[in-house]
Specification:
- The protein is an alpha+beta fold and 156 residues long.
- It is 47% helix and 22% strand.
- The protein has 2 domains: 2-43; 54-154, TATA-Binding Protein.
- It is built from 4 helices and 5 strands; from the N terminus they run ααβαββββα.
- The radius of gyration is 21 Å and the shape is elongated.
């Protein structure tokens, strides 16, 4: 749809007929190059979220917190997973190692956040939250807010 809009603007501004090669060039410049650059810039963080890498992330801008957790069932990790699933999108889970990776939605105003959760034992959970865009002030505020939400979920 964006591509059609760009062609329409070019047609109205230039008042010329747009041929196939001009439209293909506009599509390439507007439709291919920016998404490619964006994907390249954020690829490490995005790939980490979906990977089965069990090591904690080491990205700039991340914040770490340890929470006490008192489960109500005999399967505390499943309880944690349910609570996280209500607030965020789980992108990777490993029940055997008590590990979760989660993220927020990417929106027009923000690329969102990624998170790593490791249940160290039945009472202790380590959480690391990092912004997808490391230099965004808005996302750094969102990291702090996400940690406060995490505290209210895990350690009320």
């Amino acid at each position: 749809m964006f591509y059609v809009g760009v062609i329409a603007v070019i047609f109205l501004l230039c008042q010329t007929r747009v041929d196939f090669w001009q439209s293909a060039l506009v599509f390439f410049i507007v439709g291919m190059i920016p998404p490619g650059l964006i994907t390249f810039y954020f690829s490490k963080r995005i790939d980490y979220m979906e990977s089965d890498d069990r090591d904690p992330p080491s990205f700039s801008g991340q914040k770490k917190a340890v929470f006490n957790f008192k489960g109500r069932t005999e399967y505390p990790f499943d309880e944690v997973m349910q609570r996280i699933d209500r607030q965020w999108i789980i992108s990777f889970s490993d029940r055997e190692n008590h590990l979760l990776k989660f993220r927020t939605d990417a929106r027009m105003a923000s690329w969102g956040l990624g998170g790593y959760l490791k249940m160290e034992n039945e009472n202790s959970i380590t959480v690391i939250i990092y912004p997808i865009h490391p230099r965004s002030k808005r996302e750094m505020l969102m990291v702090n807010q996400a940690l406060r939400v995490m505290k209210s979920i895990l350690d009320p």
